């Protein structure tokens, strides 16, 4: 499969997500979709609230690894199509930073694929998150696999 660009500047809008879903109505061989949306949490760190996260990456390396993960998922699961989008730059608390969308003939494949995709992204893709707190101080976010 051709390499699709995953990294996008800024948050992933609800309109973009809705448009992606709507485009699949013509693909009548699909019987199931599953979607994972990662949203920036307003965590409290040392008594200060997270205002936003600034995402950065080794873009070329990240895109290559996203492509590898996509290819692996198509080999492991009986998917019709799949889309992954991850934010770069600033994303405010409450906004979407990760959109993973899998489609297949049957639901079991999409459920399993989404879990595989999200866990693989968290473990392997070199994306870095700087949590900017309400006073503009920051901490580097550590990935949690829960």
Overall description:
This protein has a domain of 87 residues: Aldehyde Oxidoreductase, domain 3, CATH 3.90.1170. Strands 1, 2, 3, 4, 5, 6, 7 and 8 form an eight-stranded mixed sheet that branches. The protein has 146 residues and is an alpha+beta fold. α2 runs antiparallel to α3. The mean pLDDT is 94. It has three helices and eight strands. A hairpin with a 4-residue loop joins β7 and β8.
- CATH architecture group name of the domain at 7-12 and 32-42 and 58-127: Alpha-Beta Complex
Characterize the biggest β-sheet. 8 strands, mixed
Residue share in β-strands: 35-45%
State the total count of DSSP E strands: 8
Shape: elongated
Mean pLDDT: 94
CATH class of the domain at 7-12 and 32-42 and 58-127: Alpha Beta
Any low-confidence stretches, pLDDT <50, length ≥5? none
Q: What is the CATH superfamily of the domain at 7-12 and 32-42 and 58-127?
A: Molybdopterin biosynthesis MoaE subunit
Structural class: alpha+beta
Fraction of residues in H or I helices: 25-40%
